[in-house]
Design brief:
Helix content is 22%, strand content 35%. The strands form two sheets. It has a six-stranded mixed β-sheet. It has a four-stranded antiparallel β-sheet with strand order 1-2-10-9. α1 packs across α2. By secondary structure, it is of the alpha/beta class. The protein has a single domain (17-169), classed as 3-Layer(aba) Sandwich (Rossmann fold), CATH 3.40.50. It is built from three helices and ten strands; from the N terminus they run ββαβαβββαββββ. It binds inosinic acid. Residues 48, 74, 103-111, 157-159, 163 line the site of inosinic acid.
Length: 180
């Protein structure tokens, strides 16, 4: 098993490239079946989801796909609902579109909760979520439960395959878990 040290922390390989590929194929098979006669708009959430999105979209052989990218930053302000800041805003019209948001990982679900509300407010006819990883124990927003999940994970911090540690290591070909 491979391991790496990053910024003083020890990480061990948790999902190998071939395990990730199986997860991606399994997600793609479901989307291929569900969207065969539709023309969904994939909204990829930068930066982390770019690796998963590249693999997933190329496995969607049965779907006529359109893809766009956004970058957001979620934070809690004075309001308890939190606020979504668009660093790279949505450039596509989502009115009457079937939207699939593509994420690297759903943790508290705040980002997805807010993005779904935004897409619905813009008139999307449906909004689903595809994510490589999902931390069910951490979910705080019921409507943020992803529809298509590569792999579930408990509360550990993970890196690689798009996921970063202070901006680095997104390029690792496997997903690594931090070890105490
Ligand atoms: P949420 O809004 O709380 O669901 O957070 C989602 C975002 O938190 C992801 O898109 C990641 O950028 C980040 N994140 C959450 N858990 C991890 C992790 O284990 N490793 C790296 N980034 C993470």
């Amino acid at each position: 098993m491979r391991s790496i040290n990053e910024q003083g922390y020890h990480f061990e390989e948790w999902l190998t490239p071939s395990e990730i590929a199986k997860d991606v194929q399994q997600v793609a098979a479901r989307i291929n079946a569900d969207y065969r006669d539709k023309e969904p708009l994939f909204v990829v959430v930068l930066n982390g989801a770019f690796v998963f999105a590249a693999d997933l979209l190329r496995a969607l052989s049965d779907v006529r796909c359109e893809v766009t990218f956004i970058r957001v930053s979620s934070y809690y302000g004075m309001a308890t609902t939190g606020k979504l800041e668009f660093i790279v805003p949505l450039q596509q019209v989502v009115d009457n579109r079937d939207v699939i948001i593509v994420e690297d990982i759903v943790d508290s679900g705040l980002t997805i909760h807010q993005l779904k509300a935004h897409m619905r407010a813009q008139g999307a006819s449906s909004v689903k979520v595809a994510t490589m990883l999902y931390k069910p124990n951490k979910l705080e927003y019921d409507d943020a439960k992803p529809d298509y999940i590569g792999h579930e994970i408990t509360d550990e911090f993970v890196i690689g395959y798009g996921l970063d540690f202070d901006g680095f290591v997104r390029n690792l070909d496997a997903i690594y878990k931090v070890k105490e």
